[in-house]
Design brief:
The complex is a heterotetramer, with two copies of chain A and two copies of chain C. An eight-stranded parallel beta sheet of chain A has the order 3-18-17-12-11-8-7-4. In chain A, strands 5-6-16-13 form a four-stranded antiparallel beta sheet, with no helix packed on it. The mean pLDDT of chain A is 95. Chain A has one domain: Aldolase class I (TIM Barrel). Chain A has ten helices and 18 strands. Helix content of chain A is 34%, strand content 22%. Chain A has helices at 78-92, 105-115, 144-158, 175-184, 223-236, 251-260, 269-273, 277-291, 297-300, 303-309; strands spanning 6-8, 11-13, 17-19, 42-43, 60-63, 66-69, 96-101, 121-127, 131-132, 138-139, 164-168, 189-192, 196-199, 201-202, 207-208, 214-218, 241-245, 264-267. By secondary structure, chain C is of the alpha/beta class. Chain C folds into three domains: 9-105, Translation factors (Elongation Factor Tu (Ef-tu), domain 3), CATH 2.40.30.10; 117-226, Rossmann fold (3-Layer(aba) Sandwich), CATH 3.40.50.80; 231-285, no CATH class. In chain C, strands 10-9-8-7-11-12-15 form a seven-stranded mixed beta sheet, with helices on both faces. In chain C, strand 11, helix 5 and strand 12 form a beta-alpha-beta unit. Chain C is globular and about 50 Å long. Classes of the chains: A alpha/beta, C alpha/beta. Chains in contact: A-B, A-C, A-D, B-C, B-D, C-D. Chain A binds chain C through residues 22-25, 28-33, 45, 50-62, 64-67, 69, 71, 74-77, 88, 211, 219-220, 249, 269-276, and chain C through 1-2, 4-6, 8, 10, 47, 54-58, 100, 102, 229-230, 232-233, 235-243, 253-254, 259, 273-277, 281-285. The complex binds flavin-adenine dinucleotide (FAD) (2 copies), flavin mononucleotide (FMN) (2 copies) and FE2/S2 (inorganic) cluster (2 copies). The site of one flavin mononucleotide has 26 residues of chain A, from strand 16 and helix 7.
Chain lengths: 311, 311, 285, 285
Amino acid sequence: MFNYQTKLGQAEFSNPIFTASGCAGSGKELSQFFDISELGAIVTKSIMLKPRSGRATPRMAETPSGMLNSIGLQGPGIDLFLENDIPWLRDQGATIVVSIAGESVEDYAVLARKLRAVSGISALEVNISCPNVENRGQVFACHPTTARAAIEAVRRNIGGELPIIAKLTPDVTSIVEIAEEVVAAGADGLALINTVLGMVIDTNTMRPKLAGKTGGLSGPAIRPVAVRAIYQVHSALPHVKILGMGGVASGRDAFELILAGASAVSVGTATFGNPTAVMQIKEELKNELISHGFDSLQEAVGYAHRSEGNI
Amino acid sequence: MFNYQTKLGQAEFSNPIFTASGCAGSGKELSQFFDISELGAIVTKSIMLKPRSGRATPRMAETPSGMLNSIGLQGPGIDLFLENDIPWLRDQGATIVVSIAGESVEDYAVLARKLRAVSGISALEVNISCPNVENRGQVFACHPTTARAAIEAVRRNIGGELPIIAKLTPDVTSIVEIAEEVVAAGADGLALINTVLGMVIDTNTMRPKLAGKTGGLSGPAIRPVAVRAIYQVHSALPHVKILGMGGVASGRDAFELILAGASAVSVGTATFGNPTAVMQIKEELKNELISHGFDSLQEAVGYAHRSEGNI
Amino acid sequence: MTSINKSASQVWAEIVSNKKVGAYHHMVFQVGELATHAKPGNFVAIAVGGSNSAMVLRRAFAIYRTFDRGVTGGLLEIVVAPHGAGSTWLTNQNPGFKVDLIAPLGTAFGIPTQPVRALLVGGGYGSAPLFGLSEVLKSRGCRVDMVLGASTAMKIYAPLDGKRSVSSLTIATEDGSTGITGKVTDVIPGIIEANSIDIIYSCGPMGMLEAINKISSEFGIMHQCAIEESMACGIGVCMTCVLPMKGEDGQIRMLRSCIDGPVVDGDNVVWGAKRVIPEGTWGAN
Amino acid sequence: MTSINKSASQVWAEIVSNKKVGAYHHMVFQVGELATHAKPGNFVAIAVGGSNSAMVLRRAFAIYRTFDRGVTGGLLEIVVAPHGAGSTWLTNQNPGFKVDLIAPLGTAFGIPTQPVRALLVGGGYGSAPLFGLSEVLKSRGCRVDMVLGASTAMKIYAPLDGKRSVSSLTIATEDGSTGITGKVTDVIPGIIEANSIDIIYSCGPMGMLEAINKISSEFGIMHQCAIEESMACGIGVCMTCVLPMKGEDGQIRMLRSCIDGPVVDGDNVVWGAKRVIPEGTWGAN
Ligand SMILES: Cc1cc2nc3c(=O)[nH]c(=O)nc-3n(C[C@H](O)[C@H](O)[C@H](O)COP(=O)(O)OP(=O)(O)OC[C@H]3O[C@@H](n4cnc5c(N)ncnc54)[C@H](O)[C@@H]3O)c2cc1C
Ligand SMILES: Cc1cc2nc3c(=O)[nH]c(=O)nc-3n(C[C@H](O)[C@H](O)[C@H](O)COP(=O)(O)OP(=O)(O)OC[C@H]3O[C@@H](n4cnc5c(N)ncnc54)[C@H](O)[C@@H]3O)c2cc1C
Ligand SMILES: Cc1cc2nc3c(=O)[nH]c(=O)nc-3n(C[C@H](O)[C@H](O)[C@H](O)COP(=O)(O)O)c2cc1C
Ligand SMILES: Cc1cc2nc3c(=O)[nH]c(=O)nc-3n(C[C@H](O)[C@H](O)[C@H](O)COP(=O)(O)O)c2cc1C
Ligand code: FES
Ligand code: FES
């Protein structure tokens, strides 16, 4: 029997294929296409303290093998989220990872306190790729000190059980440095990678296509960046579990991230092109693993590192 | 009459379409397909002090809308380069930009001294996206101090005339910070961007596809990153000329970089898919500019910034 | 389960026919059972570029009409303007080729319970969904007038059988190459008055919809319009396609045009809010 | 001007025919005048995936043979194994479709000035360039023996008219589904001895070429082989396709297999140097 289970921190998951934060709506939208309880986990859209309109439109531009988005974390805020979204997901039998985002260290602390007593959540993904209003709008995950502060705030307030997965941006000089900081600050796992900062200029209007000017690049175009980041961080911190993401559109792609060191894989942009992508990837990855002779997912995690010595 | 001329520092060019360093061989290989004297400039492959074998193979992997390479700066070294390549290019009537790369600050100094008296060179592109052997193999362009040191070494040794274009990597937390440093150190212009660090794992062998493990991602996949970097730097340093590059495969793409703030555009990976790409792009960009009502290239440089106020 | 995307399904749909009509391509797909669920105003989302395409997102097209053909499966028709890379690729595919298609998506035009007098206004290929709507309205005893506009004759999509389903058809082109010279908005007020129009249904470019809404407001009549926002997913999961809409509580919210639209009540749209979040929008800061 | 890529040109080449032969596709292109410049061993580089393809690099294929058809233009033939995305796309294109093709590229097999006894060894589709070579050698009065090997019968490419051009043809498959059971290297020594072979020409996977070179060295005979390295550009500008080669001065250098190859002297190749730079290579540090 093939063992498809995986762990991130103390949390266990029946399989390693998750949705990516911000790419699966509230879960309701996808439930027409498949049973969301079959996902390894649904990772909810990063939720903030208060309701948020997000950025003005246009919010997206297609790019070669990818897309830019600048949604600006539109959402209902934590209270309505806990009131509406979580109960519905729980009713579906979904495995839930809640993603949170803040504009200040205090935001993260408050969000963690609001979540500590909520039942039915498997893990917390902490999106620290957000502008820090207290620090000239610089992104938390771009600097070791602010990244650390945000994760510490969550750690202090979340209580003992819920694993914290810190989600990092690849837009830094050394992602390993940031990873080390957030692990030191109490993160149980790492989510790699958030989108890459990009811009598209509309050559008809001759101005940036997105209302927010810059946006986050996602999709297959950035997969090599994701694989590199996962590989580097797994090399430096082999015992820290990684939730990998970035351009995964097939079982082969997910396998690539697993070999690099991911213990689970989130699928984002691929869902936009194909609502059932996650389910297909779940099947395909399993077949890849079996056809390569693995008896369990765990054996394959980081295998690209181990096999080096062998040749 | 449409004015297609452009300037980088004090150097003038008949048109803004250049080859990208490392993507046009010695010039000889392309001269079967078009007259290389028609290029805005040919940017030579980064040359180092001594002959260099480069990295082991495999050195490349195709990726979605891009490719990874790890050539490792294979080349004959500056002396043979000056003896063989430069005279040939000069004989062709080519406009020459020489790219140099060093492993230490002293390397950059020596390379600059060797080039200061060479005639027929229009500008120097200083590739500082190379590992610094004196600093744990960290890339010069990744840190303000080492980036600065490399450019200062060139500035001190090059003499008065030859414009220095510092080529930066996008793999940093703030490319504007690095840009400011190298400009302060004496760079007359900036080349943006070098490749993005990536990795591909071969799912058949289950190890990194490239012998050098990581490689540089280039091609249309990274164009949004290039546009963003050019836009950010042009915003911060509007008077510093930018040679833009990254995923340009058509006149539309080149136009996008010009609108973001580039005064000239290098074409790299597109040449691999199409040897005459540069010539086609030169024609197409001119047509784009004319059809948008510009009388000169210069008017369009950075236009995406200016038009913001107007709307 | 939820009601979002509730009758949508994903199928490999074979192209049955692909004919150039003026500036457009009229394309027919074999879609099976899902054809029976489509209502006027709904749209389809089609994956473009084939495998190894650099285009990762689907393209949305308004459903022109559907046919239920029993066991051989339903047909679904769209009208495509070859514009950029994705739509051009689609119009280049030949009968027999299969595309990955999701439908029906989004909201449909609201059908009045009373027999009303309706004016249907289409800009360019925006006429496509109006013919199916017109059939439904007629079957409910409504009077249907139609105005179609475009820059030039080639961009007027008005097939013969479509024309037959309306009581009057007025065409306006900006270059005067067919019909009257001018914009649809030049003739709408006259038709509203002449035919005592109760409701306008429209589909076309945002600027046209806004101009129509100004007129409908002035006349105090209803206006339902099908809007076209840039969509990454088409199924409500990405939040790219939002536009500011006033709710019944008067609160402006950024709503998804793929699931809360594309058909919306013109009076609820906060017009002219491209590139800005209107003041007072829920969650704006 | 230089001599690099000297007879290469870039054309839109129409597919004239595309036939499945065993595991391969035999494809014929209308290429015009450039057909006259191709020599056995040269290759073509074809852009794959169409416009908006996510595949940015060309694919290289050995030229199987060319025909000069006067005013109607020359024909160029290749044999393609559908393998990954690029080759599969190519084999799915139909006659009438035009591809962007550059040819002839790279070095050709050296043709001896004397009538020698040559053994041609092909692995899989590696047989393709050998038939044209055989024709040339025969026209120079050489005796030509041929050995073809593959894992299985479907992967032996040996068309009838090709077979006719050789004095003997031995086939070896690993599963024994046709010819003898085994590898080409099992039979080569016997043929060298029986026919007093002077030179071996080979084309196929790197492992096979290396094994053949071991044999040719033992017998002290020449060995020219066409190697297949991953190529990004095919025209010498990218430096991805290098392999370590000994020069006449005994110095190992990383040479480009696209312009200093694909046909190289087997004794000059530093075999087994995948993923390492051999010690003593020029510029190694
Ligand atoms: C609800 C809805 C209904 C539509 N109905 C039709 C129809 O019936 N017939 C038709 O020809 N087209 C219709 N469109 C537009 C269509 O979806 C394509 O966007 C358009 O054909 C351009 O795509 P492209 O790939 O050719 O252009 P590209 O420029 O390559 O597109 C790049 C990206 O921009 C988006 N985009 C570009 N133009 C538009 C546009 N006008 N509206 C929305 N997104 C755009 C594309 O979806 C794509 O993601 C509709 C769009 C929506 C949202
Ligand atoms: C000089 C030369 C001659 C060749 N002759 C033939 C021929 O006659 N018939 C034939 O079927 N194929 C031939 N090949 C291999 C061919 O170029 C393609 O690489 C192969 O078909 C796989 O491409 P793909 O797109 O299907 O696979 P993918 O896996 O999608 O290719 C991805 C990348 O890897 C490279 N790659 C993958 N496999 C190989 C390989 N075996 N050799 C070199 N690069 C590879 C591709 O070029 C591409 O850049 C030749 C290659 C070279 C260099
Ligand atoms: C439209 C969109 C919205 C996103 N929203 C969020 C978000 O709210 N929180 C977050 O951590 N990441 C968000 N992401 C990033 C994704 O979760 C993911 O890290 C990234 O897109 C890379 O994966 P992909 O290439 O599979 O999409 C978003 C991405 C997209 C495309
Ligand atoms: C094969 C290859 C070799 C390169 N060699 C160099 C080099 O020697 N020096 C350098 O500064 N940049 C080098 N580059 C980077 C390019 O000059 C360019 O900055 C980058 O590829 C982005 O442009 P593109 O997307 O048009 O290729 C190389 C890129 C490639 C693909
Ligand atoms: S298009 Fe994705 S939410 Fe509407
Ligand atoms: S393939 Fe580019 S140099 Fe040989």
